[in-house]
Amino acid sequence: MGVKRWLVLLLVAVTLGALGLSFVLRELYTTGFRFPAWAYYVTLQFWPRWVRAIILGLLSSSLLFIA
């Protein structure tokens, strides 16, 4: 198959890191932490969740296709 082990390990490491970061951000969000005003725009909070999901899905699919 030719897939290098380090590439699979890198994918697992990035996935686990993103999952850990999401746990931290969720904990901050549920405890009432006030994010800076720019975070509202960076996270696209002014759009519904389904629109954000489509945007992120298209972005990730595009990057996967390019890679």
Could you list some keywords that capture this structure?
67 residues; mainly alpha; 2 domains
- Main beta-sheet strand count, sense and barrel state: none
Relative strand content: under 5%
Cα end-to-end separation: 17 Å
Number of strand elements:
0
Helix percent band:
over 70%
Tell me the structural class.
mainly alpha
Count of discrete alpha- or pi-helical segments spanning 4 or more residues: 3
Oligomer: single chain
Task: List the helices and strands in order.
Answer: HHH
Query: Any idea what the shape is?
Result: flat
Number of domains: 2
Q: Output the radius of gyration.
A: 16 Å
Pick out the low-confidence regions: none
Q: What do the pLDDT scores average to?
A: 89
What does this molecule look like?
The protein is an all-alpha fold. It has 2 domains: 1-34; 36-67. The protein is 75% helix and 0% strand. The chain has 3 helices and no strands. It has helices at residues 5-30, 37-42, 49-66. The radius of gyration is 16 Å and the shape is flat. It starts with a helix and ends with a helix.
Please outline what is shown here.
The protein is mostly helical. It has helices at 5-30, 37-42, 49-66.
Task: Give the arrangement of secondary structure elements.
Elements: H1 5-30, H2 37-42, H3 49-66
